[in-house]
Every structure is written in C-alpha cells, then in structure tokens.
Amino acid sequence: VVIFVRVDLNCDMGESFGAYRIGADEQILEYVTSANIACGFHAGDPSTMRRTVRMALEKQVAVGAHPGYPDLLGFGRRFLDATPEEVYDMTVYQIGALAAFVKAEGGKLHHVKPHGALYNTAARDPKIAEAIAEAVYRVDPDLILFGLSGSALVEAGRRIGLRVANEVFADRTYQADGSLTPRSVAGALITDVDVAVEQVLSIVREGRVRTLQGTYVDIAADTVCIHGDGPNAVGFARRLRERLRLAGVAVSAL
Amino acid sequence: VVIFVRVDLNCDMGESFGAYRIGADEQILEYVTSANIACGFHAGDPSTMRRTVRMALEKQVAVGAHPGYPDLLGFGRRFLDATPEEVYDMTVYQIGALAAFVKAEGGKLHHVKPHGALYNTAARDPKIAEAIAEAVYRVDPDLILFGLSGSALVEAGRRIGLRVANEVFADRTYQADGSLTPRSVAGALITDVDVAVEQVLSIVREGRVRTLQGTYVDIAADTVCIHGDGPNAVGFARRLRERLRLAGVAVSAL
Amino acid sequence: VVIFVRVDLNCDMGESFGAYRIGADEQILEYVTSANIACGFHAGDPSTMRRTVRMALEKQVAVGAHPGYPDLLGFGRRFLDATPEEVYDMTVYQIGALAAFVKAEGGKLHHVKPHGALYNTAARDPKIAEAIAEAVYRVDPDLILFGLSGSALVEAGRRIGLRVANEVFADRTYQADGSLTPRSVAGALITDVDVAVEQVLSIVREGRVRTLQGTYVDIAADTVCIHGDGPNAVGFARRLRERLRLAGVAVSAL
Amino acid sequence: VVIFVRVDLNCDMGESFGAYRIGADEQILEYVTSANIACGFHAGDPSTMRRTVRMALEKQVAVGAHPGYPDLLGFGRRFLDATPEEVYDMTVYQIGALAAFVKAEGGKLHHVKPHGALYNTAARDPKIAEAIAEAVYRVDPDLILFGLSGSALVEAGRRIGLRVANEVFADRTYQADGSLTPRSVAGALITDVDVAVEQVLSIVREGRVRTLQGTYVDIAADTVCIHGDGPNAVGFARRLRERLRLAGVAVSAL
After folding, report:
1. Which of B89, B91, B143 to mutate to test the interface with A (most CBs of A within 10 A)?
2. What is the rounded average pLDDT for all residues in chain D?
3. ipTM
4. How far, in Å, are C136, C171, C172, C189 from residue C151 at the CA level?
5. pTM, whole model, 2 decimals?
C-alpha cells in the first residue's frame, strides 16, 4: 500500500527571445513546482531571464538553470558535436548567468536540467553526462541535477556526489527498455490529456509505466516534465495538478 | 612628501574567440595585478573564459568580469542604444557567467570593469552608470567597480555602496577637464613607451596629469589600464612594472 | 481633379526566427502588393526567407529585401553606431542573401527597404543614406529603394540613379515639418482604423497630410507601410484595401 | 606519356571576423587560382567578404563561396545535425551573400565549396550532398561545385547537372579506399613540405596517390586544396606553385 507519494512538476520556461514570445510562463507557474529557465544559448535572453526568475521566485517555484547548445536558430534541438570539455564550459557559463539573476533577486539556484539535444546526448553519452555533472558540481555541489529517468546523466550526477532527480514525461510513450519512444515512431506522443494524466499517476504511484508495446517497465520518477508551449499547455497543467491532488499525491519541489 | 604609494595594474584579457586569438594573456599576467576577463558578449567564449580564469588564479592575479555590449563583430566598440534596463540585464548575465568559472576554479570574483563602448557610455550617462552599478551590487556587493577616473560610473558605484576604483590610462592623453582626448583628435594616443611610463608615474605619485594642452589637472588613480593586444604590449607592461618598482611604487590588486 | 491615383501597399514580413513566430504573413500577403522580407540580421533566417519568398511569389507580390542592423535581440530597433562602410557591407550582404532565394524560386528581387533603426538612421544621416543607396545600386541598379517620404535616404537613392519610393505610414501621425511624430510623444500612433484609412486616402489623393497640430503639410506617397504583427493587422489591411478600391485608388506594386 | 596536365590550386580565405584575423590571404592569393571565401556563418563577416572579394578579383583569382554551418565558435568544424532542407537554405543564403559582393565589385561568382564539417558531411551523406547541389544549381547552374574527390557531393553535383571539381589535399594522407585518413589516426597529416609537394605531383600527373598503407589508389584531381592559415602556409604555396611549374603542370582556374 502506498502511504505517501510525492512528486515534483517541472516546466521549461523563459524561452522567449527579444521581441519573440514562446510559452505561457506566467500561467504555467501556477501549477508547477520547479521552473527550468533558459540561459540564452538555445533560447532566452538576459531580460527574459530576469523577468522569469522574478516571476518564479514570487510564486515560490524552485528555480533551475536550463542550459542548451548554442543554437538559437535550432532552439537547441539539433545535436552539435561539441567535445565534453566544450560542454563542461558551456554548462558552467549558462548556470552562472542564470544564478546571477537568481542571486540579484534574492533567491538561490535550486537545480539544473539540460535542454533538448544536450539533454538527449547526456542521457546516452557518459562522457557528455560527466562533463555536465562536473560543471554542476564545481559551480555548486548543492544543486540538484535533473536528467532522464535512469539515464547516463542521472548516473553521472550520482557518481560525482550530486543529488539527482529522475525525470519522466507525461506526454511521451515509453519503450520496453524504459527509453522514450523516438519522436519519429508512430505513437511517440500522447495527445489525449486523460491518457497523459493516467500515465503520470501510474508512474508516480506504482513506479512503472505501460509501454507502447503494452508491457510494463519499472521507472523511477522524482519529477514530471510539463510542456509549456503547446496550445493546451495551461489546461493540461491545471488538470494534472488537480488529478494528482485528488489521488493524494503531494506535489512539491525536491 | 609621499611616503607610500600603491597602485593596481589591470589588463583586459580573455578576448580570444573560438579559433581566433587576440592578446598575449599569459605573458601579460606576469606584470599585472588585476585581469578583466571578457564574458562572451563583445569577445571571449566559455572555453576561453575557463582557461583565462585558471591562468589568472594560478598567477594570483585578481579576476574581474569585463562585460560589454552584445557585439562580437564590432568587438564591443560600437555604441548600441540599449536601455538602462537592458544594460542592467546584460551586466548581471555576464558577471554571473564569469563568476561561475571563478567559483569552479576555486577562486572568488574580485571586480567588474565594463568594456569599450559600454565603458564610455557609462562614463558619461548617469542612467547607464546606475544600471551597471546596480547590477554589480545586486550580484555581489563586495565586488569592486572599475570606471574611468572621476566618471559617472565611479560616482554611481560609490552612491550605491560599492567600493570603486578610479582608472587611468598609460597610453592616452588627457584634456584640461580631466577627460580622455578623443581618439579622433591628433595626440590622443601616447606611442612613446617612456612618455607613457612617465605619465603613469606622475599620476600615481603626484595625483595629477599634464594635459595635451600643457596644463595640469588633478586625477585620482587607483588602477592603471595596460593594453594587452598591441605589438609592444608585453614589453610595455614589463617596463612599466620595473619603473614603478624603481620609483618605490607598490603594485598590488585593490 | 485627380484622374488616376495609384499606390503600393507594402508590409515587412519574414520576421520569424527558428521556432519563433511573428506576423500573419500568409494572410497579409492577400492585401499588399510589396513584401519587405527580413534577411537574417534583425529577424528572419534562411528557412523563413525561403518560405516567405515562395509565398510572396505565388501571390504575385513584389519581393524586396529588408536589411537591418545585426541585432536579433533588439529586433533591429536599437541604433548601432556602425560606420557608413559597415552599413554598406551589411546591406550588400543582406540583399544578396535574399536575392538568392528569389532567384532560386524563379523570381526577381524588386526593391530594398531598410528596417527599424537602420531605416531611421538612413532617413536623417546622409552618409548612412549614401552607403545604403550605393550598396543597392552596386548590387543591382534596377532595384527600387524605399525610404521615408522626403528623407535623406530617398534623396541619396535618387542622386545615385536609383528609382525610389517615398513611403508613408497609415498608423503614425505627422509633424508640421513632414516628419513622423516620435513614438515618445503622445498622439504618435493612430489606433483608430478609420482614422488611419482616412489619413492614407488624404495622402494618396491630395498629396498632403493633416499634422498632429492640425495644419496640413505636403507629402509624397508612392507606397504605404502596413504593419503585419499587431492584433488587428489583417483586419486593417483588408479594410484599407477595400476603402482604396471604393475610392478608385489603384493598388499595385511600383 | 602525359602530354598536358593542368590543375587548379584553391585556398579557403576571408576567414577573419571583425577584430579577429586568420590567414595570410593577401600573400596566398599570389599562388592560388581559386579562392573560397567564407560567408559569415562559420567565419567571415560582410566587411571581410568585401575586402577579400576585391583582393581576389584584383589578382584575377576565381572567386567561390565557402558556406559552412552556422557555428562561428566552432569555426564550422563541428557537425550540426541540420536537416537537408536546412542545409539547402543555409547554402542558398551564403552563396547569395557572397555573390552580391562579387557583383558589386564587377566580377562573377565562379564556384562553391562547402567548409569543414559541412564539407565532410556532404562527402558521405547523399541527402546533404543533394541539398547542397540543389542549392548551388538553383542559385546559378553555371557555378562549379567543389567536393572531396570521388565523394557523394561530387556525385550529387554531377547528377543535377553542375560542373564539378574533384578536390585533393596536399597535406593529408589517403587510405586504400581513396578516403582521407581521419585526423585522429597517426600519419593523417603530411608535415614535410617536400612530401606534400610530391604527393600533389603524383596525383596530378599519374592520377593516383600512394596510400598510408603503401599501396596506390586512383584519384581524380581537378583542384588541390592549399591551407592558408598555418605558419608555413605562404612558403608551402610558393614552393608547390614553383614545383608544378618546373614539372610542366599548368596551374589555372577551372
């Protein structure tokens, strides 16, 4: 019998850039407990960072850095063959930039979650994972490292001595080996909000997920990723939060 | 009678970018006591920042952030009509990025000196000066703010409660009002190393400088700027350091 | 008695960037006769340029290059103190990039209109105006140069031997000297669609505009700028086009 | 018996950026017959492009566009996972930008050679090769496409109807299958100038190269790549040109 279940809800945000707007950050902040704020490489800019940090702190949402590849044009979604040393350097840089805004606003940086292609590379490439874990650790060993549940990144973080958070996705299906179904495969995305909510409940309460193949696979879940930029993003966040409450699942930052 | 005179020698560095190299940083670090390290906006990149911070710390040179306008193509030398709020934001960002490398290398960020057109704008525009001073103060009130001697930037720093450093130049001539001779005016630059060294000695020991017009004007000097990228940069730095030693002027970071 | 009146309607477009969307380009293209397409410096990117050029050509709208300062973060709206030579170079570059897409799609580049702060600088600074005019002329002397009606840019274009287009604005008020009311002044913007339409009709049919002060000033109008990114942009474009038709004003590219 | 042998010598240039200098372009232009000029994505900027185009045309060297990935920090040497469509778009853009400078200076663009990681990707990935070939063809079907000898890029160019140039390298060793020895393998680079010169002569006169393994492999050579940025770049270019002359090999653009 599950006595007490707790989970964190996180969302990528601060991904606007200059005159360009992406994401319903202000509304999404009502429903999540952790905000991963872009740091100016794949998205975001200094002014957007300040505003987003300020909003998140006001709403008492835990603030994390969301570093990505230096590819604004590709929104950080394209793999760039950077060396582990280059990844270490770009991660230190981006964490520091975001941390300064948090400090200037009177808060404290809470976690780090890589973005997009950097996240995916770090999930499977141990050297890139180590580079990121080392960057986080050397900037501040108290930071929590978010990574794909069970991935090389989470392992690298744990090994270096960081607190880590296994991340799961509400709107992505899983494969029998616990990996995410690649976006190129049919059925990769869950578009039905109810199905997505049920997947989260199953993962959070039972520690397992029904795979695309219909089997079940164990999966650790410290934090659930909510997307903030779809047409139903706010509605989904509200619904998920409500369902978790009804199900007796506590929602709070790590 | 001057009993004891002390001054800081600073140099802009870390201004390489990727495959592009500028400045004889390693050699210059032998002679200066403060290093102003570019933060990736007008020059510098994450890997260059790490390497430069590491070198400076190894040589026990005080490390400062050297934020500039986001204009790599113009090397931060072109005025950009950014608002005070935008300047505040870009300054927080750049200080934070550099500070993270300093922290990761086990050091502590010591000072901030704006670069190029941002430095010049902050010297004369009180709103831009305040924006920078506030950024520095909010990121870390222990940082020392470097600005043109007697400028609006130094004044803004002092007003907000920061320690400030009045900066003078070895290779630039001064006007009767204490301002630098604009580069467009004949005689703006001092190319004779001996003349430059004597100007520094006069400023440091007597607190005044002989202007281009031949008169004298009082000038405060906490730190002297050495340029690191000319053909004689290293030779000049060595010579100035030696002459200061012979003249009994102590050289150390603030 | 006015026997025949003709005017061009132009709109800035192609100002999206990567994942970021700005402007209702496809719909606006139904109502305008000239499209000024961003070239990747202040906005736009290669893929957006291709798509926008293709759409404009399909709808038989005249395609122009819309070069700006290299300031994506500021959307080209911030003055950058670039030299005339730098402005010449950035203009040649951007025209060429856009022209290649037009050629690849089987069309021919028709005109050039600078963007934002570059447009404003060129309107009042003869050296910057000449630099742009020379860039346009040297890339292709058949291109038409669009500039603020009566400005230094139009004059520079005419002097070098280019065909020029005097541009007027539907939603901006004018001063007694024929200049636009600065945005910082109350009454600078016309928000009432009917008032904006009437201003265009007055300018186009009578060659004069009622100033903010209530006087009238003569103004030449070869092309009217329609904004494509406001909430009512499409509605306004449709209404203006319809009113011009009813008033017997022919609308066509130059 | 070889009756008449002709080859082109090409060099990448215009790779400076703002205040940053790379390459001895002016001197190298004395010895090569084709110049591949960077277009602002991996290196180069509008002003550098104008200057380099002007110099090359003055010295009657054939001017080519040298497009790369949008990665100034990595100098275009890092693979970026861009789609074929994105590669098509970035290639059209860069060719157009360079072509405009050539036109403004009264010349005509002659060829296109992709840079660094884009060159390597195009050599082995048929879809990327096709994207580049199509971009070149649609901008101007008279352009000559340079690619690694025998590669997918040369094949894609030929298939679409372009004239192509098989490129060989003076200072890289070859494998038994005709591919370049990867830089990570010992013996990949030829540092002895005499050995490099002899390799070129062997390739140009006999149509074959001695591989790193000691065997011989046939190789087509329309153009030889000279590097312009090493310490001995100018000396090597001069020596190679002289040796080719002595050997009766005509050197001229295609």
Report:
1. B89
2. 95
3. 0.96
4. 17, 18, 16, 20
5. 0.97
